[in-house]
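Record 1 of the preview.
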Amino acid sequence: MSSERPEQTHQKDPEITVGQLLLAEYETIKDEQKARIGFRDNLLYVTLAAVAAVIAAAAQAKQSSMLLALPPVCVVLGWTYLVNDEKISAIGAYVRGELGPRLAAATGKVDAPIFGWETAHRGDARRRSRKLIQCGVDLGAFCAVPLAALVVYWVDGADSGALLLALSVAEGLAALGLAVQIVLYSGLVGGGGGGGRSE
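->
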């Protein structure tokens, strides 16, 4: 009777390098950035569709109070848009300031540009004018439209009670607050919190 045991073979996994890990992280966060860009940009179309639907319903019913639905919709969509835009910019800043230098150090190519596009596309001479236009578009879609709806409601004033009037004032303040945040996050004034479409 043989007591031989089948020979056990241990195959060692190939060693994973720091550079490979950093590249995997890069691919993962770029996928997240791409998904956020698509989601963010679609929010503008969703906002336009919601605005058109509310205005059409208010005009058909001849009820200016229905316009009070616009500010909360625009402010919520605008805030979601802004949060995604900030994360997109944060991912770009992380790649430029953290991931790129760490990968350069891990590969020993400190002098070679790593992820050059992350920096190159920000050097465009018309970047500031594009940011100004984009800031205007964002303010128009998410703040000016609801404020205009409130002005129409206030001017019409046919069906405004104290409760609806107080609600409309609160909605106006929310829209103005969002406008301030959009300007601050655009990076066009002060230190700026975000980058405003810096992908």
